[in-house]
Design brief:
heterodimer; A: Yope Regulator, Chain: A; 7-stranded antiparallel β-sheet; 7 strands; about 30% helix; about 30% strand; globular; B: about 120 residues; Ubiquitin-like (UB roll); 5 strands
Chain lengths: ~220, ~120
């Protein structure tokens, strides 16, 4: 569909392409047992991709603690212990992971923005939903500083457009800023990308959803 | 904002795991622990004066992103995005050594980077 000449690459996605990208994405998820599924809304032809994750977190995420800016935190991921350097006090505190959170991610198509949007909800294992503040504390450190610059238009509580339940959402209004470079790069190499793979690889990790590297090579763009 | 990055700040001296890639061959033991990374700017991201770096395999994408952000003197409100294989953003927790194994060619890992004003 893209001409060999330098036409401006559209950062928008039509719904049909969204579905095709999701289909290809889901095929690979099946192959590597990455846990994604397609949820169709009964009686409609609308649906979304869904995945649930259990995420171990440090105790500081769940309890009221002053935010300390971390200079060079070794990555926690699945480690049992994390060393966090408190810049202000100069004290090294060892935070043990003693809690697991349940994150449920939904990839929806937004007709108004003409791009995908990431919705999610989070709760403790006992079902107690996380507050917006608690969710913010679990935003990946790589993004947290800048998110704090303008949190009101980034991570918001929204009613899920298809389920009508309260969810959190990563606001899509700046999608173009990180999609355009990737799409331009691919076009320069005469490659086509799977929009969902590229998009999710950027937005997912913000809220602890990692996309395995194999998606990058194994999932093709729709015809 | 100029297109050419200034010289590295003190952070580079504090950061022995990220160094200028030597033009000569380094010692064999050094070479195994570090991989060569070539950083390419995309869009209107500032171009780094030094594009080629030797990075310890265990270094994470986040750590490299922090390094680049400081090197380029990005503001707190600016987010750096890093892409591998042109159009895929590796997880910030991903080790560069793993990326090198998957996407390295000609002895180096090419990473593209761009910056965004504000998230959301």
């Amino acid at each position: 569909m893209m001409a060999a000449e330098r036409n401006p690459v559209s950062c928008y996605l039509d719904e049909r392409t969204f579905r095709l990208c999701c289909q290809l994405f889901l095929q690979h998820s099946e192959t590597i047992k990455d846990g994604w599924s397609w949820e169709q809304i009964k009686g409609t032809d609308e649906g979304f991709m869904k995945k649930t994750l259990l995420i171990p977190v440090k105790s500081s995420v769940l309890h009221e603690q002053p935010e300390s800016s971390v200079q060079d935190e070794d990555m926690v991921t699945d480690n049992i212990q994390a060393n966090v350097e408190d810049e202000t006090a100069g004290v090294q505190a060892v935070c043990e992971i003693h809690a697991v959170l349940r994150y449920e991610y939904h990839v929806l198509y937004s007709f108004s923005y003409q791009i995908p949007v990431l919705y999610f909800r989070a709760s403790a294992l006992d079902g107690q939903p996380l507050s917006l503040e608690e969710v913010w504390r679990n935003v990946h450190l790589n993004y947290r500083q800048r998110l704090q610059q303008g949190p009101w238009d980034t991570l918001t509580q929204q009613e899920h457009p298809l389920l009508g339940q309260p969810f959190f959402m990563l606001h899509p209004c700046r999608t173009e800023e990180f999609m355009k470079p990737a799409l331009d790069l691919a076009q320069a190499e005469n490659k086509r990308v799977n929009y969902i793979v590229t998009w999710l690889s950027v937005v997912g990790p913000v809220i602890r959803l990692d996309v395995p590297l194999s998606y990058s090579t194994e999932v093709s763009a729709p015809d | 904002m100029s297109d050419n990055a200034e010289s590295p700040t003190e952070t580079q001296k504090d950061d022995p795991s990220i160094q200028h890639a030597a033009t000569e061959q380094t010692g064999a033991s050094d070479e195994k622990k570090k991989i060569d990374v070539l950083l390419k700017a995309v869009g209107d991201a500032p171009i780094m004066k030094t594009k080629k770096w030797s990075v310890e395999r265990g270094r994470t994408v986040q750590s490299l992103a922090q390094f680049i952000s400081r090197f380029l003197k990005l503001e707190a409100s600016e987010q750096l995005f890093i892409y591998v294989n042109q159009s895929f953003a590796p997880s910030p927790d991903q080790e560069v050594g793993v990326l090198f194994e998957c996407f390295g060619s000609d002895g180096k890992l090419v990473l593209h980077y761009c910056k965004s004003q504000a998230w959301g």
